[in-house]
Each structure stands twice: as structure tokens, then as C-alpha cells.
Amino acid sequence: MSLSAQLQVMVLQNCNLSGNSAVILSFLLHQHALEAVDMSNNNLSGCFPSWLIEKNVNLQSLNLQGNSFSGILLLPSKVHDALIWLDASHNRLSKLPTGINITFPNLYFVNLSRNSFQGIFPSVLHHMDRLTFLDLSSNNFLDNIASAFNGSKSNIRSLFLSDNNFFGSFPQGILLASTSTYHLLLNDNQITGEIPDNICLGQNLTLLDVSSNKLTGSLPTCIDALENIAILNLRGNSLGGSIPLELCHLKKLVFLDMSKNNLSGPVQCLPSLQYLHLSENRLNGTFPFLLSSGTDTYTMDLRQNQFSGILPDLMHKSFPKLKVLLLKGNMFEGLIPNDICHLKYLRLLDLSHNKLSGQVPSCLSNMGVDGDLYSFLYNDSDTSVYMNDTYGFDDFGGVVGSSPVPAFFIGPDQEEFMTKSRQDKYKGSILSYMSGLDFSSNQLEGYIPKSIGDMKWLRALNFSNNCFHGPIPASLSHLSNLESLDLSHNNLTGQIPQELVELHSLEVFTVAYNNLSGPTLGRNGQFITFDESSYAGNPYLCGPPLLKSCFDAPSIPQPEEHEDDSKFANLALFSFFSVVLPDWFLDLLGCALFQEKLAMVMVFSSGQAW
Predict the structure, then answer these.
(1) Is residue 9 domain-resident?
(2) Range of the domain at 44
(3) Considering 81, 116, 151, which residue would you say is the last residue of a domain?
(4) Low-confidence residues of the chain, pLDDT below 70?
């Protein structure tokens, strides 16, 4: 195929083009007026098509990302000063030529991420005076990062070096070289030592990500000098000390991740944040600690710390837009406040492994009713960090400029939630899709509210390892999206509602270690995939996959499913034990043991299984 007309713009992205580029793109051999070419996300292979640049002296923008080009990044034989935009990311390129700064003197955007480049940092890039955006992430560079940038005089505003093998101390030369640095990503390397005080020279920094390194020490108290910082990611290091009060002065900060460090002490003050991650530290104190400044908070992850006290009763006023709340593995106690029912966007709630007691609020079905409205907050784009920088083609094929401040750093936001018997990580659009309640390993009691069945958006429900009693509500069959249901290790009684066979999406199901009786759900529908472990520890259950036949099982009266009627019975029984046993002994027994004793009394008094 050949084209007689001379084109200025050629866009063939996502066209399933496959094979050697020299053959597939041969129809462009006679094109000489191209200014912008986009061949991204195909499967073109072979050598880098430098001939395309050489034949089109006015070519400004070349996008070849998402192909299979390999070998050296070939250069044209002559200087090409028109090219200012080059994206060859997601290929198999392995070598960068030393003369790239001479051949392409006016490049200001270079994305070579996700290739196979290796060795030391290409120092030739320091001599590209117009270069403002450089992405070399996800390669195999191995170099002392401090030495690589010592004496650098580059004007790079956006530098992405994440997911390589850079080592050594924090590269102070990057910030000393240019006070106009806006975006600095050094995550997933082997950088050691402390964060230096001269990090505070980067007054124009809007994004700093040094997560998943080996940094130690504490956060510099001059951190409030980063007055324009919007995204600060320090996750997965060995930082210690307390969270400095100076963080409270960062009025533009919207994303803060300091999880998986050794931080300790109370959280005294934080700025207005949209995404807060402080999990897996040794932080303590009560919650919430930023009542007056969290009105735009969407995500709050405080898992695996030492926070204590009761959950507040004004949460919906403090965090009205909250969509993700993860409080697992702390020491919260008392009741689950009814106020949590008013969090109408909340779709992911983890209160597991605390000391919460009392009953689950029956109004819980009001929670999350408008959760779909904030699904746009999470997307799949790995490049969302600069999605508002407006680099790209304009309507006439030219390359437009860039704005210094990125849009929200949303794409990489990642949450961990226990579902399907494993700890899964959710990010991007799957995070907006995921929803669940995890109240496991507390001291919750009473009936499971029938209103839970109205939460049709639920995909995971875990009430295991509590003191719930009474029947399993048949209304759970209305949870048509449910993929994981764990009610194990409680004191549930009665038969398993046969209506649950309508749950066609279940991948995990367990009611093990309760006091259930009657037939299992057999081999009906999705339940054919569950073995006897789903029903273990219920001696009065029968039917497949259990070996016990229901024809041999005794008839056992079933409790009625009336939450209100249960209150009087529970009160009477509790009053009996309160008289017979002293308070200190009841406290010693704890919730689980108390329920076990209660079951024994009921069996003794009625002569029937409870």
C-alpha cells in the first residue's frame, strides 16, 4: 500500500498491527511531511524505525509505546532539531546511544519506561538543555543515584526513575540542580540513608514518591517548606519517629502515604487530605484526629497500628465523602456507632481485629447507597500522575505545552482488603468495583441484621470470629453480587436458608464452627464447588458434601427469625448470669466463652441442641 497524498498527522494506535515494522510501515516510505505519528499499542517489532524520523524533517512528535521494538534506539544520520516529543515506552529496547543529545537537541519529553535498558544512568541526558520530562522507570539501570546526579545542571521538571536498581543515598543533586523540579519519582529502588534537609529546597515540588526503598531516620521538620506538595509517598521504608506537626501546614497536600514504616506516637495534626495511608506503623491515640479538616477525605487506611478508644458518633460530618475506611488490627472498643450508617459513599469498611462489642446497627444498609458516584476517583492509568500535564497532539497535529501542576495522583491508589480467604490488593478501576464489610475477630453479638440483605452492592461479607447468635437471615440471598461470605466461628443456630443457593457469584462460603442444624446447601448451584470444610464444626448439619445423611439426623426445632423477640430472651439470660456470676468473672470469660456457657445451659434446660 502507498499513499499519494502527503500527510501531516498519522494515528494508527490500537490497530492490532503485528510484524516487522520495516514491512508493516513501508507504506510510509514516501511520506516527507509528517509532523506527528502515533503507532502506539500495536505489536510492531524489529529495529527502532529511525528512517521514519530521517525522512520527515518536520516530525515533532513520535509515539511508539506499547510495541515490541528491540535492540538499540537507532538514531537518524543527521541532526533532527524538530523532534520534541519521543515516547518509546513499553518496548524491548536495550541500549541508548551516546549521541542522542546531539541528534535530538530540542527534545523536551522523553518516555523510555518499561524497556530493557541496563547499566549506569546515561549521563548524556544531563546535556539535553531543553529536556523537561524524563521517564526511565521500570528498566534495569544499576548505579549510585547520588553520584549519577552529582553536579547535574539539567532543567528536568518531571523525573521518573522508579522500579530500577539505583542505590546509594538520596540524590541531593537533583534538587540542587534545578529548583523548578515538580515531579520526582524514585520509588522501588535501593536508596538508603536519611531524607536530607535540602529536600526542602524543592519549593516547587508537587509530587515526591520515594516509597519502597530503604530510607531511615525521621522526616525533616522543614517539610513545611514544600508548600506546593500535593502528593507525598514514603510508603515501605524504615522511617521512624513521630509524624511532624509541620505536615499540618501543607495546605495543598491531598495524597499522603506513610504506611509500612516504624512511625510511632499520636497523630496530632494533618492537613486536608483526600487519600490518607498510615497502615502498619506503631501509631497510637484516639480517632479521629483531624475532625475539622477531613471533609474531602475519600480514603483512610489506618490498619495495623495501636489506635484505641471508641469510634466517634459524628463521623459522617467529619468525613462525608469517605469511600474507603480501613481500621483493621487496632484496639478500638465499644459499639459500632449508628452514625456510620450515614456514610452514603462508603463501600469498603474493615473493622476487623479490634475489640468492638454490641450489635451491628440495623441501619447499616443505608451505608454506601451512593457509592457509585465516586467511581471516577480510581482509574487504571499508570500515567495518571501527569494526566493533566497536557503534553500531546493538538487538533492540528502540533504539540501543545505543559502545565506545571499535575492532576490528582489517583491511578496508583491501592487498598488491601481480606476477601476470598486471602489478603488482596485493589487499585485502579477494580478499586471502584470492589466493596465489602469485614467485622471479623471482634466481640460483636446479637442477631445478624436482616437489613444486610439490602446492601446489594456488597461483594464480600465477613462476620467470622464473633459472638453472633440466632439464625442466618434468608435476606442474604438478595446479595446478588456477593463473591465471599464468611460467617464461621460464631454461635449461629437453626438451618442454613435454602434461599442462599441464589448466590450465583460466590467463590468463598463458610459457616463452619457454629451450632447450625439441618441440611446443608448440598450440590445446588454455586455450592457444588464447596467442600466439607465450609460446614465443619456443626455436628447437627447433614447432607452433601458431609458424610452424614439427613435421613438419620434427628428433628430439631428451629428458632424463629425475629430480632425484636430475641432481645427479651437475651436480656433474661444475661440477667440470670449477672446474678449468679460476679462481674470480674464475666469479664474474664469474655464474649466467646460466655456464649459457649450459655449454649450449655440451654441444652441442659431444654434437652435439645441449641
Answers:
(1) yes
(2) 1-116
(3) 116
(4) 1-3, 151-153, 175-179, 288-294, 371-433, 553-610
